[in-house]
Amino acid sequence: MGLESSKWAIIFLVCWLYKNVSCNSVEQKIYVELNNTVPCVRLLNATHQIGCQSSISGDTGVIHVLESEADLEWPLSKGPNPPYMVLLESSLFTRSIMMKMKNESNRVAGVAVVVPNTSPPEFSPHTTCPNENTGVYSDNYGPNLAHCNTTVWNPLGNGLSYEEFDFPVFSLKEDNETEFIKQCYLDHNRAVNGSAPQYPLCAMQLFSHMHAVTNTPTCMRRNDINFSINPEMVCDPLGDYNVWGSIRPYNDTVLGHKENESVVIAAARLDSRAFFWEVSTGAEGSISGFVTLLAAAQALREVTHKAPPTRNILFAFFQGETFDYIGSSRMVYDMENGKFVIDLDNVHSILEIGQVAVHSGTNLFLHSDPVSRSNDTVNDEVENFVKNLQSSTAGLSFLLVEPNVSQPLPPSSLQRFLRAQPIPGIVLADHESAFNNRYYESFYDNAANLNLTYPSDLSPEEQLEFVTETAKSLTDVATVVARALYKQAGGDDSQVNTIKADPKIVTQMLYGFLVSSNNSWFQAVMAPELKNILKPSPPEYYVGVVMSSTPTRLVQYLLANLTGAATNLTQSQCQKPDELPNESRQMYSYLWVQGIVPPNSTQRDSFCVRASVRLTKAVSPAFELGEYASKDYSTWTESRWKFIKARIFLVASRDLEMLTLGVGVAVLFTSLLVTYFISTKADVLFSSTREPASAAY
To answer: How many Å apart are CA 110 and CA 61, to the nearest integer?
Structure first.
């Protein structure tokens, strides 16, 4: 075989081996990656930082499974192998235990919380007085009502979401990964009769290093002074878009005060939060309210076309309310500065739908502000609004009553309007004083908290259509809200009893927002290019830093479909309606939606929806004004990070690690010496003896 043939044979053999022989990397042999984890991240405001983070290279600790609070003695003092990575069940995820570990953070590398499939009796990591510093009550306005002096709205709040932890805190699902971690602990780490476990030990490593530090003014200043070619931001303002619509359209290019225009605003919040990043569901905290308002908007569609009321009704869905009323404060700011289609003087009254799904009895409560009601004009209008609401319950199974004692408004968007101007307003809620919601702003405020259950033999499509008791209850509330809004707007009294919310629409919305957004109804009302945001799980309701989040888009398209009109426009006409007579993008939004799939067909009947539904920014005015230390507006930002990761592995003893290092160093120096020796003697070791050349005679 020639030299050329041998070369090609070797190349072929190497290629065949490369293709057919698979090898795992050393890293894959050492580490087991954990995929179902969610971190606690760092948030910042004008004065401080909250949340959690790891060191820049991740934090590593020997796993210790906490079985009781008394068991804390092992990781905090007795254990011989600190630092420890503490794994605990959700029942032990309490303020007492977390603060003890925070105070001994030199022995605690991190915490992993196992979130069960069932909920504990109660849990709220929020404060006892939500948004207390950015509402209407202060030393200058109802000082006796400020800081929850008379009413503690969230008595179960332990404040963990607003603490700072110098170690990473991750959540784990109750699944096979968690069982594997526990088994690793039992096999290697569990102390027997108080004796120290033997090496190797099972360890966990958590990566969640945050770039931003100190507070929002500091991180925003660092954003501004980055001189690199590719500047790297360290934090971003929390924000999204508000969704709003009205029964009569407004020209969105004509902003500011409208002469002879009076508007009743119906509002609800869209967002929620939890201790861990992007696991907030907000079933009672936000979804019960905005689903009720969407159903009320749909119930008003026909009657407002048939017998239009004298006043306009504007439906507003605010984002970022959890973080010092981002969305509502931005709308008020825009109204004050001529950047919205109406101003505050056009606002006749406000009805806000709060938490309305967890009834402790047969009553819902009408909360109002006692300070603004000291003004006779405001008081008279509030009393009239109360009458309109109470008279709208005819034929329904509950009553609307005012609290028995004088107390402040609960945490609500209405407070931001009252900071600007005394406007008659009511907050509708299922609690008279303290929240009925035992899981306020936690990952347990989910479908189960609303008793949203389905027969086990139903398919997903049948569950979508199944009218639950919760849906029936919220349908009644939506009916009352719609009737009262129509009366408050000066509608025809003879039409009031014809207004009824649709229980099928309510149950479909509850299923889509709390069980699975990827269902046939949500698919039909969404744009083709947005179909990928629909998942076989509920959306995430944390406001975040990504504009146009899934809840915002869903509410935008649902409100458009529930209050707008289907047109005969083609897709190209829907995209450029201004080229057609009697169509105007200044007055309406035009949305091309997928439509349903007819029976015996595989193609959707797509169509164009015309609706007076808009998006406006829900970013705090503090960032528009550059006032990062503002006391008047929300200043919340979210830190950036490079990656989030968790993994477990077996760690050897310190002695073995040092021995391995020593052997490695010895081998290194030995190889260097051998190399040096061979190099200096190369002419002797590698010299070749040549035969003397033949003499030529």
So the answer is: 7
